[in-house]
Write the structure tokens for this entry.
Amino acid sequence: MVAFFYNLAVPMESSVRPQTGGLEDNMINFPSPNAPPASPHAHTQYDQPPIPQRARVATFIPGTSQPPKNYSRIMVIPRMQADDIAWISKELPGLDVSIYVANDPKAISHPPKNKGHEVMIYLTYLIENYDHLPDLVLFMHSHRWTHHNNEFLGFDASQMVRALSGAHVTRAGYVNMRCHWHPGCPEWLRPTGMEDTLGKQEEKVLARCWRELFPFDPLPSFLAQPCCAQFALSKDRILSIPRSQYIFYRDWIMRTPLSDYISGRIWEYSWQYLFTHDVAHCPAEHICYCDAFGVCFGGKAPYSQYVELLRSKTKINEELNIIDRNQRLSLGSSNLTSDHNQNETETRLRVQLNQVETELKARKQEALRRGADPQRRAEECGRPWREGDGF
């Protein structure tokens, strides 16, 4: 038997909230080298946890969509007692939801320990439901609107869940729910770093953690995927890894002296490796929006134009805010020339803002119409399409 001895000298912290954060070719994928198989033994004894069986991701065969098919799905939500989750039943009626309360050991569903942010709950769900999974499992946070949701879907989790293509998840196996690269891509964590990096406290200890989590795999030079630990899995992809391995990873979270915050952050950029064995999983943003959510701008160039229009809108709003602030500061002044010039500038900017917003709305509506056509969706994403195929 081979044993791990945990000696990471990183202090514990008291933070307990679930994690909140998470130019290109069509995909950047950096596969890991092959590694020898691990020990087949696995159990949950805390005195001497064994090395887990190596994930069998290489044996996963991408699923084939079978339209028309109503894929069964469930959304797994980690929450705190104080979190307002009323939006779920209101915006997503009929969706199966599994809610784990991180800080309430008396809740119907709760993790064995409130540590590791959402990681503990995600792994607990996989362990407890391994033998009766739906077609798709969506791992999401408890907040409806948040910065790490997709901007072009209103930063709205309910829009993302409704739009998510079950066929796409079935084909891919693992789908990061965030399309935008920053933060996280194309290269994010460098586990060889020895210095503390602002916003990347986990980088300094990742190399040691890697040897514990993936002992037979060489240490990569970097890890990358879009933040922020929200993703969807197919049933087949989940089952391509033995339950004993999920148990091993949860035991690691419970045992490691790493803080709640750091142990959760370690996994934010490790999920893609566990489920794809790619150290970097960075689909092109326009491909992600199109194939996963049906927002198809017509290719990389039209997508970039839409992004530039959004930047123009932001810049105009910033200029209008400056004018508004100056007007409030100059109340009571008698500088008529200055006031006249500011009024002219404000009028011009509001006309420009209206034009930009009109163009953005038209392009978004066209992107949604394009995404509703399965053939155009497949062609834009560069994958084969056959008559009768769905999304």
About this structure: Strands lie at 27-31, 73-79, 96-101, 136-139, 174-176, 231-234, 278-283. Residues 1-27, 30-49, 54-58 have pLDDT under 50 and may be disordered.
